[in-house]
Amino acid sequence: MEIGVKSPSQAGPGTSSEQRRRRVARRGVATASVLLGGALALTACGGSGSHAASKATGAAAADSAPAKDISQAKITITPKDRSSGASIAADSKVTVADGTLTHVTMTEAVSGKAVAGRISADGKSWTPDDRLSRATQYRISASAKDAGGRPADANATFTTVSPAHSFIAYYTPDGGSTVGVGMPVSLDFDKAITDKRAVASHISVSTSSGQRVVGHWFGDQRLDFRPQQYWKPGSKVTLKMDLDNVKGASGLTGVQNKTVTFTVGRSQVSTVDAATQTMTVVRDGRVIRTIPVSTGSPQHTTYNGQMVISEKYQQTRMNGSTVGFGGEYDIPDVPHAMRLSASGTFIHGNYWSAPGIFGSAATSHGCIGMRDVKGAGDPTTNAAWFYGNSLVGDVVIVKNSHDKTIAPDNGLSDWNMPWSQWTAGGAAS
């Protein structure tokens, strides 16, 4: 039976034998045409397929040529492109796998200001030299090459966290500095910290002398560290802050990773006796100089207690109105001035008073004065000598003044708090 043709017994009613014969003949021709057409079609498809395969082979060969030149170097930029809320401390970096970096640029997107940075010695990474600005958009462009010298490039744009949702700490002393034995490590946060335990647990201070160092909070924005006694002379002190992404308060995270090391110099502790108007300078346990001074008058007495030199100025202006004394004095060029308190206590040179007052009369508004000359140009004066022989962090103790003991958080006067009170609870508890 031919395909698609009914048998005579299947023919419909009223169909004659001749009609059936003609119908079968027509269907047979049609079937043959279909079969032949199928054969032609198959031949045509085979021909077209061979041509297409040839074209595909050519295209693949054409595509594979540049593929052979693709660099194996894979550059990764952190933060990711188009990200926001990036840290200003540790988030920015460029790394490469299977290659070495050849060039990296980082700029502020709006101003175009370049950000300094450096490629590591092995060529595998790049980092900025300093922390970034907050709420700022940055662009990074990086180039690298693989072992075969083939280049690779990558780019990213990101925005750092806003000031409203982040905090940092300003610290003293500076890294690499040499300070006196009384210098505490002091951190001032730019936002109020409510989760003090979390923040303090990510800060450590250690010393090569092995002294135990403990932190103490003064309010919500200041955290100081010190040992029980003054630092050991010659020791190295290291401050480590790992505050990046640490929660300091609701909606407030840290954006700072920092390691700072400073050196403790020789021991110098100077004691001012307000009863005799003299200052005895002791270095490494030996008296090296006794200096006549003039402390605060009976109306404006000098604080008692242990104070620490926090700033030094060859010359500075002192205006009484800035510390509650109205227009009682305004001296534009006070020589050899060293700050002892945040409230305005200095130990400094004095050229405007009669030389006879030093060592005999208390005449100041609370500062400690030493004989000096206008312009700070005479190195033989007591004030010039003391200035030249003092370090930030040196201790100045005042005794026998008719005033109270200075508060521990007034300047760097931490040593006036008893150790038991300092350690009570602990900064990270």
How would you portray this structure in words?
The chain has 429 residues and is α+β, with helices and mostly antiparallel strands. The protein folds into four domains: 8-67; 74-161, Immunoglobulin-like, CATH 2.60.40.3780; 166-265, Immunoglobulin-like; 268-416, L,D-transpeptidase catalytic domain-like (Beta Barrel), CATH 2.40.440.10. It is 16% helix and 35% strand. The strands form seven sheets. The chain has a five-stranded mixed β-sheet, with no helix packed on it. A hairpin with a 5-residue loop joins strand 6 and strand 7 (151-159). The longest helix has 51 residues, at 17-67. The radius of gyration is 42 Å and the shape is elongated. The termini are far apart. The model is unreliable at 1-56 and 59-65 (pLDDT under 50).
Helical content stands at: 10-25%
Helix/strand/pairing class, anyone?
A: alpha+beta
CATH class placement of the largest domain = Mainly Beta
Mean of residue pLDDT values: 85
Largest sheet strand order: 21-20-19-27-22
The fraction of residues in strands falls at 25-35%
As a whole number of angstroms, the C-alpha radius of gyration is 42 Å
Shape: elongated
Major β-sheet profile: 5 strands, mixed
Per CATH, the architecture of the largest domain is Beta Barrel
InterPro entries: Big_10, LD-transpeptidase, LD_TPept_cat_dom, Transpep_catalytic_dom
Active site: 348, 367
Keywords: Acyltransferase, Cell shape, Cell wall biogenesis/degradation, Peptidoglycan synthesis, Transferase
Protein name: L,D-transpeptidase family protein
